C-alpha cells in the first residue's frame, strides 16, 4: 500500500509562471483525493496526466481564495464531461459555507453543476477505506476554519520466512490466509496458526498534509512519526515578523516542526515568489536535512 502524491499547485497566494495555485492529488488504494483546488487546478490535472476520472473526494484546508477558486471551473468541466459521480467535499463548516455561497452565486441557491455532498469536518476520523483512513485536526490560520489531514494505513504483520520454511508452509494462497489471521492445515495434517509465522505488528504509513498555518503550536502531536509531512513555508526567517502578520510559517519553523516530531521526510509548499527556492531549502535543511521544496507536477510516493 502506498500513497502517491501529485503536486498540482505549489504557489502561495500569488501564482507565478512556474507555480500554480495550491492543489494536491493523493492517490491510494484506488481512491483519488484532491486536497484544495486553487484556480487552474483542472488544467494542472490534465498537465500531470492525472485527468478527471474517479475524482470523488475534495478536502479543503480552508476557504482562502488561493485554495478554492478552482472549484467552479473544475465542476463546470465535470458537468461538460457528463460526470454523474457523486462528489463529496470535506471542509470546516465555515469553509463549506464559503463554497456554498460561491456555488449559489453561479448556479443559484443550493445549485451545483454536478451531484455534490458537503460534509463538514469535526476533528477526528472522517474517512475510512479498507486500506487507509483519514483524520483531521484543527489548525489556526488567521480567521479561517482550517484543518490539517492525516492519512494513515493500519499496522501490518509480515510473514517470517524462516518460520514458514521450518514449518513447511508452501508458497501460494495459503500464506495469504495466514496474513489475514486464519489458521491453516498443511497436507501432512499439521495445523499452523497465524501466531506461529507472523512477526510483530509494524506501523503503517503516515502522511500529513497541512495547508496555511499561523504557527506550529499544537501541531506536533498530529505530525509525530509521519513518513511524509507536507506543509506550507511561505516566508523566510528574516521576514518572521511579516510571516506572523500574514498568518504563515517560515521555512525554519516548518523544518523545526519536522525535526522535533520525528518526521522522515519534509516537503515544503505554498512557496512565495519573493524568494529563490535555494534560499528556502537552505533555511529548511539547517533544521531538518531531509527537506525538499515541492514543484508543480512533482510526484512522490510513500
Ligand atoms: Zn494560501
Ligand atoms: Zn490562507
From TrEMBL:
Positions contributing to Zn(2+) 2 binding: 66-67, 212, 270
Coiled coil: none
Listed Pfam families: Anti-Pycsar_Apyc1, Lactamase_B_2
Named cofactor requirement(s): Zn(2+)
Catalysis performed (reactions): Endonucleolytic cleavage of RNA, removing extra 3' nucleotides from tRNA precursor, generating 3' termini of tRNAs. A 3'-hydroxy group is left at the tRNA terminus and a 5'-phosphoryl group is left at the trailer molecule
Record EC number: 3.1.26.11
Keyword DNA damage set for record: no
Positions that bind Zn(2+) 1: 62, 64, 141, 212
PANTHER family registered for this protein in UniProt: RIBONUCLEASE Z, ZINC PHOSPHODIESTERASE ELAC PROTEIN 1
Record function comment: Zinc phosphodiesterase, which displays some tRNA 3'-processing endonuclease activity. Probably involved in tRNA maturation, by removing a 3'-trailer from precursor tRNA.
Assembly notes: Homodimer.
HAMAP family assigned to the protein according to its UniProt record, in alphabetical order: RNase_Z_BN (MF_01818)
Name this polypeptide is given: Ribonuclease Z
Source organism of the structure: Mesorhizobium plurifarium
